[in-house]
Prior knowledge:
Layout: H1 9-28, H2 30-42, H3 56-63, H4 67-79, H5 94-111, H6 121-125, H7 129-148
Helix pairs in contact: 1-7, 2-7, 4-5
Amino acid sequence: MSTRATKSGAAWSNEKKMEENYDREDAQGTPKHIINWINSVMSGEKDYVECKDTDWKSLCTFLRDGVILCKFINILLAKEEKPKVLFSKKCANSFAAMTNIENFNKGCETYGLAKEFSFQSGDLWELRKGPFYNVINCLHSLGFTANSKSYIPAYAGEITKYADRD
């Protein structure tokens, strides 16, 4: 967004730290594991077009309106015989997309993901690498939750522990 002021001070260092965290997850292959899992789960869905790119901008754009996320969580919820989330299939404006993202987060909680792993709509909508780390963290954790319920296809991501350097 060209109209956004440049970050400085603590906001700049927080954004930088989140970008470094994303880069660390990217080096571990987490975004690739996430998109492979989403593609596997969604493969039988009508009108689903696979995401082939795993760079953060492509993945963020692919998930941005929340439609794929809602369809994805609905598949997981259906397997557990839990109620599906409602969503707008065509997002004419940002409000519909933000509502979809919020409904995805609610669906994740219904599925069994701890609320701490959810993300804010802006983390996905604003197309910024640092905040997108929160989205990756949510989907990564959702994968482990699904694995704990023996969901097939299984999520292939790995748990990696890092020491906080700051």
